[in-house]
Structure formats: structure tokens, C-alpha cells
Design a protein that fits this description.
Largest sheet: 2 strands, parallel
Helix content: 55-70%
Shape: globular
Strand order of the largest sheet: 1-2
Order of helices and strands: HEHHHEHHHHH
Structural class: mainly alpha
Oligomer: single chain
Strand content: under 5%
Number of strands: 2
Number of helices: 9
């Protein structure tokens, strides 16, 4: 189901982002070719943390706005259909949702200089990172890094951990939730007690945020709602 949603959405997301790329190749952005064209020598290194800080900030605010009741059920709920996501959920979005959360990546080179190969490298990193935070392998138990455990808290409990790479903006915005310690032990994260705790709190949050849970995972024509 996640694969199907991702494959169906990708052509539309690509069409929505095409104008950004067209403007870039037509020379309207601040992309540059050779490292020697950087504003100053150290900028070739500075552009990487600058890009990450800029996009981390703006993805946070876009992502959080997609949880507003006026747009959540239409645009962002398709991604939250999978409460325990897999790597395939990394691009399983409503097309407008996926496009909206990519805007900071495309806007950056129109505001700041960015070397072309650095741009490609950063896009590859973003995709790998997005898969990483959906893969259920809880490696980073860090108060700074928004890893898979932090993002699992987001999918389970909805209104926490909107950030992309760090917990900075969640902490400033009052939306940070520390991952359950049990997630970092292979025995306890797969244990019945932890699953029951997650299900109980998750179901309360679903009712609070969405009302009736109308998710369906059966093939079309044989739909069966979750209870």
C-alpha cells in the first residue's frame, strides 16, 4: 500500500516541482558551477550546514501547518495512514503534501548561492535521511538529532517531533517529545508490554486528532476499517 501510494504520487510531485528546476536551469537561481565561483573560499563548506539549518527550520513550520485541522485530513493524513511506517513511507504522500514539504529545498538556491554538485549531494542526503527516519531502526538516541525514534513518536502520537534533522525547532516550538527508552532495546521494543502501551496511547490520540479512525488497508473493493 505504501509503495502504491508513493508510485501514484511521484508523477504529480514531479510535475509540481518542475517549475523550480526549470527556473534553475534558465539561470534565475544562484546556483554556480565551479567551486572557484563561490562568494568566498570557505563558502564551499559553509553552504552545507547553511542549507541544513535553513531547510530544517522551514520544513518544521510547513510540516506543523499540515497538521492544522483545516488541511490535515485532506493533505497530510494519507502519510499518517501508516502509524508504524516502513522505509516506503518516505515518499508515500499526497502529492501536494510532498511538494509543500520540498519547497524549502528548492527555494534555498534562489536566496543563497549553492554549488551544483553540492545541490545534488544534498538532495541525495535528504532522500537517504527521509528513508532513515521511517525505517524503524532506532540508532540515534540523541537530544539533538531527530532520528527514526523521534519520528516514530510523531507517527504514533501525531502532535510531536515535526522537525527534519534536529530537535531544535520542536524544542523552541514546544512540540518535542523524547522517544520512549524501550525503543532502544531490541527486546523491549518488540515486547508485548511496549506495543500495548503504544496502541493505547495512539488510539487516544487518533480519537483526539482525527475522530473516528477510518483507515483501511484492504484491497479496493474489500475495504475493512480498523477498529
Amino acid at each position: 500500500m505504501e509503495i502504491s501510494q508513493a508510485v501514484n504520487s511521484m508523477p504529480y510531485m514531479s510535475a509540481l516541482t518542475a517549475p523550480f528546476f526549470l527556473a534553475e536551469v534558465r539561470g534565475y537561481s544562484k546556483l554556480y558551477d565551479a567551486p572557484s565561483e563561490a562568494p568566498f573560499p570557505w563558502y564551499n563548506l559553509l553552504q552545507f550546514p547553511l542549507f541544513l539549518l535553513f531547510t530544517d527550520c522551514f520544513v518544521y513550520f510547513i510540516h506543523r501547518s499540515l497538521h492544522h485541522p483545516s488541511v490535515y485530513k485532506t493533505l497530510h493524513k494519507p502519510h499518517h495512514k501508516w502509524i508504524m511506517p516502513t522505509p516506503f513511507a518516505a515518499i508515500a504522500f499526497h502529492p501536494v503534501d510532498g511538494w509543500a514539504q520540498s519547497i524549502p529545498y528548492h527555494v534555498f538556491p534562489f536566496i543563497f548561492p549553492l554549488q551544483k554538485f553540492a545541490y545534488l549531494t544534498l538532495f541525495l542526503f535528504i532522500q537517504v535521511w527521509t528513508v532513515f527516519i521511517h525505517d524503524g531502526e532506532y540508532v540515534a538516541n540523541s537530544p539533538i538529532i531527530n532520528g527514526a525514534a523521534c519520528h516514530t513518536m510523531h507517527h504514533l502520537y501525531f502532535n510531536y517531533n515535526y522537525g527534519q534533522y534536529t530537535t531544535l525547532w520542536d524544542r523552541l516550538g514546544g512540540s518535542y517529545r523524547k522517544p520512549n527508552e524501550e525503543l532502544f532495546s531490541r527486546e523491549s521494543k518488540m515486547g508485548k508490554k511496549e506495543w500495548e502501551r503504544q496502541v493505547k496511547e495512539m488510539e487516544e490520540k487518533v480519537k483526539e486528532v482525527e475522530g473516528e479512525d477510518d483507515r483501511s488497508y484492504a484491497p479496493v473493493g474489500k475495504e475493512k476499517k480498523m477498529k
